[in-house]
Design a protein that fits this description.
The chain is of the alpha/beta class. It contains 18 helices and 9 strands. The strands form 2 sheets. The protein has a 6-stranded mixed sheet with strand order 5-4-7-6-8-9, sandwiched between helices. It comes from Ottowia testudinis.
Amino acid sequence: MKSPADLAVQLRRQWADTSRRLRQLLSEDGAWPVELPIPLPSSSLLEGDLQAVREHVQAWRAVRMGRVVWAARRYRSTADAVELPRAWQLRTPSEWVAAMQDAAIGREFARLGRLAALPAVQARPDWLAVLIRQRHLLENSAEDDVARAITLAAQLSPGCAAGLPLRALPFAGIDGKLWERQRTLLTLLLQSQHPGQLDQGLEHFLGAQTPGTHWLDVVDLDGGLLPWPVLRVRSHDLARHGPPGDALLLVENHQCLHHLPPAGELPCTVAILGAGLNLAWLRADWLQGRAVAYWGDIDTWGLTMLAQARQHLPQLTALCMDAATRQHFIDQAGAEPVPATVMPQGLLAHEQALFDQLLAQPDKARIEQERLPVAWARDAIRRWRAGGADGAASGRHSR
């Protein structure tokens, strides 16, 4: 005999099977109804444990989901035929999922339903199959972020970037980091719409500047290390050849050049601005022996990039990315459009606490680094090079 709970386990295995999940949710030919056989009790069980059989029958009579098929069976030990559950029929995706008795799967199904209702998916049925297949992508992303990626993908066409970097493309409501967060989903959606055209990558298909041409600003804070005060260098060139000096300040955004101390104040030091999420070049051998500091936005993605940088460079020191700085300039804080929801590996204990604090206060979850006063940032940078206490500026400066 099998109880409703026993068959729910079998149904959950069906959900975990990608091909079966596709067949049922796309309602392919012959997909419905789903019929699960319910083994009939043996004669020996009926004679030896009649109470268990009664409870089995009662459990199936209580089922309201789908349709239970009953059959009359005669046993030697019974005077009349006994009505017993023979099969469980589930006629729709909603019945199928509800019968699984799993809240997480129910939420997953509901989210798929909302995404399937988006106009971009309604107009492109193949995209629903992509979303059903890529279960892990949906589990690890905020629903709003996935919806934005779908809306963005619907606006993309071959060559539409016209040589611009992906993050520079002017699509309303799309922040630059979405390209990195949802790159896999964007690629899969476009592949389903344009088979064979993305074999050379997303940038090639869109006609965008390739990742290898991500330009970084290299700033001479020593005043005598480089022939020019500021050089613009490609990230893949920095992966092979480093600038002179023995200390490096890594700054998330290009816009913070004016926050740096004037040239000549920091001996043997260069700053590199604008890396964003492009941090693979930090594996370069020339960086391993240098003092390195990192300064980025106070938000969940800034802390995520800090953690990624620290995985390449464990000696790294964070600047102005702490709870004290956030509290001092809380009036500059705003909401983060799409926060990172997974705690990244590589954060120190106090940084993990800050990450949790940002998620708990979404309306005050972001302070962009360029909003900090110049004096505050410069003081933190100078103290780092002087060997003082780490990242938080001392708070001596007023707002």
